[in-house]
Amino acid sequence: MKKIILPLFLVIVSSIAAQYEKEIRILDEMIVTGMQDWKIPGLAAVVVKDGEVVFKKTYGIKSILSKEAVNGETLFAMASTTKAMVAMALGILVDEGKLHWNDKVIAHLPDFQLSDPYIAANARVKDLLTHNLGIANADVLWALDSISTKSTLQRFKHTQDVYPLRGGFVYQNIMYAVAGEVIERVSGIPWHEFVQNRLFTPLQMPRSQTRAMDILKVDNYTTPHYDFDKGGVQVVDRNYSDQIGAAGMMWSCLDDITNYLKFIVNKGVVGNDTILHPTTFKTLFQPHTLIPKNQFYPTASLTQPNWISYGLGWFQHDYRGHKLDFHTGSLQGLVAITGVIHNTNTAVYVFANLDHAELRHAILYQAMDLFAFNDSSTNWHPRIFQHYQKLKEERKERLQKEVEERITNTKPSLELASYSGTYHHPLCGQLTITIEDDSLLLNFNDFETMRAGHWHYDTFRTATSKRWTSPNLISFQLNGQATVESLNFWEYTFTKSD
Questions:
Q1: CA triplet 262, 221, 351: central angle to 5 degrees?
Q2: CA-CA distance, 247 to 267, in Å (whole number)?
Q3: Can you give the residue ranges of every domain in the chain?
Q4: CA dihedral 484, 490, 492, 497 (to 10 degrees)
Q5: What is the pTM of this model?
Q6: What is the rounded CA–CA span in Å between residue 37 and residue 334?
Q7: Which one of 144, 358, 400, 406 is least enclosed by Cβ atoms within 10 Å?
Q8: Is the separation of the CB atoms in 47 and 367 below 8 Å?
């Protein structure tokens, strides 16, 4: 039997390759050129059309240090493309009648609290996935601390509301962590085990991990990189913020994610098994929130969508007269993107190991042009590369303006030691400042450390590092007794307690 099956398989693969020979060559050449321009160490990409793999290839290396080649089993961060799978997990529970999209969150999580009691009391399960709950972004919770999911959500109640319930759009990772808690409460097992059992296993994704820390147990995973203005591409720290794992901490590889794309193109069906009922699958991809254009990706200036929306774990906009559902994923030094145009049965997934390697957008649109619309007239890489290079230059200009606006020949109002001590913010936690080598050493929650030097007057500026790739200003406020009372970091005010 094996002697019959193997040649048939090879004939099928050869037939597909021959059918799309031109498209494969164009996409491959664009990726190779794009990786050189973006300085991307490693990348993996796959395109599925009508349930068949029409393009699948890995490029480059896992790390500039080890120089080991990327292969089909190399794990990359799914980052925020994780969100779609969490929405699907909730969809499975909807299909089983264990919850409904319009259930109030407090019906499943009675201790759910927000700064606005009305929003907390009326938030629906669906609202956890659509970024329009009305509460400000609070990524500081996992950027500056490593507390448990439960503690993270307890602190989140200090995040202020910024618009009425369902009255706007603010990208909100923390609510996906809440969605993970709902999955656990309803199913009786942790969300990551539920996803593993009910999605990864039936989709035949054996290498994929639902927790970032678990990649250390299975080996063959990529390394994050950042292209520094001074110093070029360097290895940077990996992110293991599993306390908000349902928002973006899953990892997968090209071989596994290929089966995930087939599942999407097949509208929730794997072989003879229906993982998601048609109505539920359709609900995931329906527009649920309108997004202002100024809160969307910079690529919108090139694709010129007429409308932009968000489904349940998917961004959406019109492209060539069809609805494109897609989502990016970005973690420290790692990126991903996935997209599907259901009307053409075409889906794309890209992994890369360089921070903000926006070649991912070019691959998405190029693949859709080639395989969904049989159009090779546009080369998306130079267009997107030039656009983002312009944005990069504008960022440099802003940083340079900040330098030019620095007031020289000033000094702090107090002795450096007077700025040391313990500071607190109800959302961000504890900040301890000590003095080291005429600099301030900032320790956030015994988790993140930054070094800051004097900038002007009572303002200091943090140094860049392999964890913090952009500088930030810290301004101290003094009281009437000429002692430090508080400091401002980002948009948060920390109060000095000693």
A1: 45
A2: 23
A3: 22-394, 416-496
A4: -30
A5: 0.93
A6: 17
A7: 400
A8: yes
Q: What is the CATH number of domain 416-496?
A: 2.40.128.600
- The DSSP secondary-structure symbol of 369 reads I
Question: Residue range 428-439: average pLDDT?
Answer: 95
Q: By the 8 A CB rule, do 40 and 357 touch? A: yes
User: For residue 151, how far is the Cα from the chain centroid?
Assistant: 22
**CA 318/CA 309 separation, integer angstroms:** 10
CB atoms within 10 A of CB 413: 13
Q: Which among 172, 193, 315 is positioned nearest to 247, based on CA atoms?
A: 172
Per the structure block, which two tokens stand in for 165? Answer: 């319930």
**Six-digit token pair at 186?**
């309803």
CB 347 within 8 A of CB 259: no
Which fold would CATH assign to domain 22-394?
Beta-lactamase (3.40.710)
What is the torsional sign of CA 50, 262, 101, 306?
A: negative
Specify the residue for token string 């200003």. 473
Q: Report pLDDT for 6.
A: 46
Per-residue pLDDT, 3: 42
Q: Over 80: is that where the pLDDT of 106 sits?
A: yes
Say if 22-394 and 416-496 have the same CATH topology: no
Amino acid at 377: S
d(CA 275, CA 268): 6
